[in-house]
TrEMBL record:
<feature type="region of interest" description="Disordered">
    <location>
        <begin position="44"/>
        <end position="63"/>
    </location>
</feature>
<keyword id="KW-0732">Signal</keyword>
<protein>
    <submittedName>
        <fullName>Uncharacterized protein</fullName>
    </submittedName>
</protein>
<feature type="signal peptide">
    <location>
        <begin position="1"/>
        <end position="30"/>
    </location>
</feature>
């Protein structure tokens, strides 16, 4: 006569919990399957050679100092002050870009980009503006 597993004698949910606990307590061994071919599993370890390490890319060449115009180009004096600043800065930016350096790695537009810095430099200072009082 065979005896039932101890967990089968417990009522309802307790039997399920006991069965799970008993299963988790078993050693982690796979049961052999009858008639299945035997497969040789290598011991744990790398299965392929390690990837070669890549040397860090050399740093980009120094873009050089940023070159800004010192005054509004006389060709744009007839325009409004904002447009004259923009065209003067753009002309210098394009000249710097064509020369290959002088923009200091700055893009034309964006936060702290060439346009914003150039425009701020070309704006008249507060002391040069006439007083409105």
């Amino acid at each position: 006569m065979t005896t039932a597993h101890p967990s089968l004698r417990l009522p309802g949910a307790l039997a399920a919990v006991a069965t799970c606990a008993a299963f988790l307590a078993l050693p982690a061994q796979a049961a052999p399957v009858v008639g299945a071919p035997q497969v040789n599993v290598p011991a744990a370890g790398p299965t392929r050679p390690a990837a070669p390490t890549v040397a860090a890319a050399p740093a980009a060449a120094d873009p050089g100092p940023t070159v800004f115009p010192t005054a509004i180009d006389p060709a744009y004096k007839a325009m409004s002050t904002g447009k004259a600043r923009m065209h003067t800065c753009l002309k210098q930016y394009k000249a710097n870009k064509k020369a290959g350096s002088g923009n200091g790695g700055l893009h034309w537009i964006g936060k702290d980009a060439y346009w914003s810095q150039c425009s701020a430099r070309l704006k008249p200072t507060q002391s040069a503006q006439p007083s409105t009082k």
